[in-house]
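From the shared-data thread, chain only:
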Amino acid sequence: MTFPNSQLRADYKPSGEPVVRARPAQRVRYRYWLMLLVASLAGIAFQLLNQPATASRSAAVASNIVRTPTPDSPSQSGAASPPAVPAVRVQLRVRRGDTLAGLFAANHLSAGDLDAIMRLGGDTERLKTILPGEEIDVGRDDQGHVLNLHMQIDEAHLLDVQRETQGFKASILDIPATIHTAYAHGVIENSLFDAANRAGLSDGVTMELIHLYA
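Structure, as tokens:
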């Protein structure tokens, strides 16, 4: 290696041979560039050694991700939940000689459900005395199982039976009604019943009048 003459100085060994040495400033620069080169090589080596580990960690994180299917995309098994089936309404009209068991059998309704409803007693006792002209509304599923049952007991009350998780539940509901005031008049010529009938009064109101005048 050659150096400018201005940066060299001659030292002599005891043998008298000249030794050429670099000045201190020049040695500092050499050390700086040498350290920079070593640091660059160390950084490159660190990146090369660390790259497989980073890729492994990324793969491990990706493997732990649980993907939740969105409502618009099918599940991984490919099976979608079946939609809820609405109840099918069946209207049972009571005719002379009909029984509730016979009506259930004719409309493919579950006899076991009928037995469970009748075992409730209480509010369902009215179902034991069905009369011609009455109607019973039943909601069933596609297997014939009863989901609910409704029957009007009188003008102001309704029997309501609902299937719940633990079985059936029955209750009596009030029917919302609007009351209108009306007037009627007539002349009793033969009987009160005949006069009330000519005035347009119902048999129920006429009977109440008879009990009132009695």
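The longest strand covers residues 157-164.
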